[in-house]
Every structure is written in C-alpha cells, then in structure tokens.
Amino acid sequence: MGLLTALDGGYGDRADALVVDGTALSREQLLGAAGAVAERAAGAPGLAVLARPTAETVAAVVGGLLAGVPVVPVPPDSGPLERAHILRDSGATLLAGTGLPEDADGLTPLPVSLADRPGGGWRPAAEDGDRTALVLYTSGTTGAPKGALLPHRALAAGLDALADAWRWDADDTLVHGLPLFHVHGLVLGVLGALRTGSRLVHTGRPTPAGYAAARGSLYFGVPTVWSRIAAETAAARELAAARLLVSGSAPLPVPVFERLRDLTGQAPAERYGMTETLITVATRADGERRPGAVGVPVAGVRTRLVGEDGQPVPSDGESVGELQVQGPTLFDGYLGRPGATAAARTADGWFRTGDVAVIGPDGFHRIVGRASVDLIKSGGYRIGAGEVEAALRDHPGVADAAVVGVPDPDLGQAVVAYVVVADGGSGGSVGSGGSGGVGGSGGSVGERELIDFVARRLSVHKRPRRVVLVDDLPRNAMGKVLKKQLLDEGR
Ligand code: MCA
Ligand code: AMP
C-alpha cells in the first residue's frame, strides 16, 4: 500500500485498529471504505476533504492516497472566503466527507460511508513517490494561504525518521485529538499510525479528559494541550503509564515541561518542524529530554544556522541565526507559486525556515523565535497577520488594521487586532455589542462585531481574541506599521 504499509497486513483482525472520536475501525473496514473512495476519485486532479475529526475523514484521505490523487484537507470551520480560496487554488474537483454542504461548494460531492466497499476489480494506484500526496494550505506573512505540495516520498521519509527517533512501532497505541488538516494531526497523527502499524485513538478534541481516558503508549499534543493537561492534576497522572509524551507545533513553556515531568514521572519529548519540511528536529526516545530544546536532526536531515549577513553561524550553543534545513522530508514547493517556492530556498538549495535558532556543540537545537512578527502561532495554529488584516479591511467600518501575536499563557500567542475605524464610524453597517477596546477612536464598530466578522470569513481560530480601536497606527518614515511598538503596548 505504498506509504501506508500497515494496511498490507498490520493490525491482524483487531476490530479497533483505529478509533476516531468513538468510532472503531478494523483494517479491513478502513480499506473497504477508503477503497470505495479511491474507486470514485481515480483520475481526479484533486480530492478536497472536509476534515472533520471523524473516521470518514480518515477513510477519505486514505482513499485519495490509494487512488494516487492529491488530497486537499479543508478546515471544517473555514468561512466562505478561506474555503473558496483553498478549493479554487487547489484545483480540486471532488469534495469528500460527511455532512457536505448542499452545493458541495460547487464541486462534485463524494459522500463517504464506512459501510461502502469498492468493486471486485478495484486496485490501488501504482506506487510513485514523486506524486503529490497532500496539498496543505498554510499561512504566509501576507496574502491568502499557500498550498504546500507534499509528495509521497517526503511523507514516507518523514514518518520513517520519526519511527526511528521515537522507536514507534506496532506495539504502540498513539493517542491525540488534533485537527486532521495539518501535518501534526494528519501526517504524524494518522498516516504515522498507518505506516508504523500502531493503533490510533483519536479523541475527537484534544481534551485532558480524552487523553487521560485513552490509555495509550505514545501521545501527541501542541503546547496549549499540554498546558491544559498539566493544569488538571488527575488527568495528567493518568498519563504516567505512557511510554512517550511528544510536544510540537509551538514552543513548550519550561514550566509546563517541568509540571508534566513532575505529574507523569517522565519529561515530554519536544520536536520541531513545519508544514513545508515535516518534522526535521526531534528529541529521541532514548535521548536526553531537555527543557526548552527540540532535540537533534532526524535521520537524513541536515541543519545549519545562517546570520543576517548570509554568513554561517557557529554551533556553539550561544550564537543565533536563521535555521535552514535540507533533506528528504522537504516539500516540492507551493502550488502555482514559483516565486514563493524559489524564495523559500537559498541559492545552494537549503530551505529557509524563518525560525531563529541556536545549536549546541552537542547538536541540540533551541528555537528562540521567528524572523517575522507577521507569522503568529496561536494554539499551535500558524496564522498570517496579513490574511487577518485583509479580512478586517473588508469590513466597511474599518479604515485600517494591524494584527500582532501577543504572548498568551494558554495559546502561546493570541491574535490581537489594532483597528482604525473608517470616517463616519461604520459606513452604516456596524454591528452590536463589544467593548470597543482601549484608546478608542469613538467609531461605532464593536469589538465583538469585528471578531465575529473574521471568524465567519476565515477559520475560527484565526479570529482576533481582542480588538483595540485606535486613532492611528504607528508607522515609520517608510509608512510601515511599527508592530514591535504595538506588541509592547498589547502585552
Ligand atoms: C468562539 N468560537 C467561535 C467564536 N468564538 N466561533 C465562531 N465565532 C466566534 N467569534 C467557538 C468555535 O465555534 C469553536 O467551537 C471554539 O470556539 C474554538 O475555540 P478556540 O478558542 O478557537 O479553540 P480552543 O478550544 O481554545 O482550541 C485550542 C486547541 C486548538 C484545541 C489547542 O488551538 C487546536 O486544536 N490546536 C492545534 C493546532 C495544530 O494542530 N497545529 C499543527 C499545525 P466548538 O468548540 O464548538 O468547535 S502543523 C505544525 O505546526 C508543524 C508541522 C508541527 O510542528 O507540528
Ligand atoms: P506550521 O507550518 O503550522 O507547520 O508551523 C511551523 C512553525 O511552527 C515553525 O516554523 C515554528 O515557528 C513553529 N514550531 C513548530 N514546532 C515548534 C517547536 N517545538 N518549538 C518552537 N516552534 C515550533
């Protein structure tokens, strides 16, 4: 089965090889439902999947992969603006899932049923590592999200490297409740299980109670999830029997690391990656678990630090530089964006992560920040300030907007919008409610109205958590908004 090797005979006759939000599937059931999807998707230019955290979503994604069709996961809470962009930009012609909108967003609907089976003559597409497996939409600093093209070979290399780092195999039960439209929850959290042959328990949502009840050996979470678990002593103690607790997608605060270690008897293993590179640096199961550090490069990956002057930065545990990576886990580029694809790499072929890091003489990596204030990580979600600003400017009551990521104890960073109200208040379409924020300009657009406006147009997690109405945005002589100043004010 190419990438998903465990579908070839793993799991034996277990009825609960995969459990997704309470629905159990055997390997045979998954293969049947996925085969039925694959049969209908064969030859399509792209299969969009409305990625609710369900067994049907898993069957749809696996079906697309078996058909050799690029799978385009769509955040289920994405508003019309974001969803229309993903569907149009990806060129997908089919929309799979359950509870599809009546018009299937203008695509051909492909309903998924776990009772479906393919016809007798159906066979998976021939293996081709170069083929695009997933098109994952991810935010940049400006503009709409870009589709990162991930080929089968990169997913296979990335998962094998993690299986090696974490000794992840068929004896494991993987537990998590992360969304199924990103690398963390989908690639590691679902395809990883189906490649290593480990059982999977997806808890529907990543709640402390769900994680505590699942009794796994291997757990995945973003720092917000770990921080919520660490705050619930009884739930955290239930994880003491696990083999490995892995954190990633954003920095794990040291106090959370320490509290988890104290409550569970084992320190969490942090790892680092990106949509474009998959996981490139990881703490090894048999290695040191160091708070504030993300580990060492995984098998096949090379890393280096480069200074602002383009010169190499030494791995001395102190010097700071942009982290650049190379290896078999890298994406093939952004769909239809040769300029952005070229800009993401150096002339000598290294991927520029945009993350600022320190590497120790022992090879341990520490991520110390991001080069751009315009990429925000909130609850482990990557959010481009430019996309939220553009959505806010679409409101007739908004003259201008600047968005920053303010440190937040639960989410890591919280999206905060500074908004200049249009002359005359709102252009006549102001909403109700909302406190208006501090330093208000007297305009009549409410904070709640603007938060809901963004939540309706984009994915809900991209909405500002706070809106501050201001008379003007601070700008430098070039007219560029001084975001560092806004950040200092917003803390
Ligand atoms: C609240 N809600 C609203 C509004 N306000 N809905 C509409 N309009 C509003 N104004 C409701 C939503 O309907 C939803 O309801 C709920 O609020 C969502 O709440 P929110 O506060 O946004 O989320 P949360 O519950 O606090 O979520 C925290 C979380 C989540 C569970 C940690 O952030 C999460 O799942 N993060 C994971 C992100 C991730 O997987 N990133 C990996 C990227 P309802 O509850 O009814 O739905 S891959 C990556 O980074 C790389 C490769 C790597 O290294 O892994
Ligand atoms: P995404 O494209 O959503 O996959 O986000 C990738 C970004 O998440 C990286 O560029 C980092 O900024 C951040 N990230 C992922 N894992 C970690 C980690 N363990 N520590 C700090 N930042 C992380």
Summarize, please.
This protein is of the alpha/beta class.
Fold blueprint:
Blueprint: E1 18-20, E2 23-25, H1 27-41, E3 47-50, H2 55-67, E4 71-74, H3 80-90, E5 94-97, E6 108-111, E7 132-138, E8 146-151, H4 152-166, E9 173-176, H5 183-196, E10 199-202, H6 208-214, E11 218-221, H7 223-230, H8 233-238, E12 244-247, H9 254-264, E13 269-274, E14 278-282, E15 296-297, E16 302-306, E17 321-326, H10 338-343, E18 351-359, E19 365-370, E20 375-378, E21 381-384, H11 385-393, E22 398-408, E23 412-421, H12 447-457, E24 466-470, H13 483-490
Parallel strand pairs: 1-10, 3-4, 3-5, 5-6, 9-10, 9-11, 11-12, 12-13, 23-24
Antiparallel strand pairs: 1-2, 7-8, 13-14, 14-15, 16-17, 17-18, 18-19, 20-21, 22-23
Helix pairs in contact: 1-2, 4-5, 7-9
Question: Can you describe what's shown?
Answer:
- The chain is of the alpha/beta class.
- Helix content is 27%, strand content 25%.
- It is built from 13 helices and 24 strands.
- It has helices at 27-41, 55-67, 80-90, 152-166, 183-196, 208-214, 223-230, 233-238, 254-264, 338-343, 385-393, 447-457, 483-490; strands at residues 18-20, 23-25, 47-50, 71-74, 94-97, 108-111, 132-138, 146-151, 173-176, 199-202, 218-221, 244-247, 269-274, 278-282, 296-297, 302-306, 321-326, 351-359, 365-370, 375-378, 381-384, 398-408, 412-421, 466-470.
- Residues 426-442 have low confidence and may be disordered.
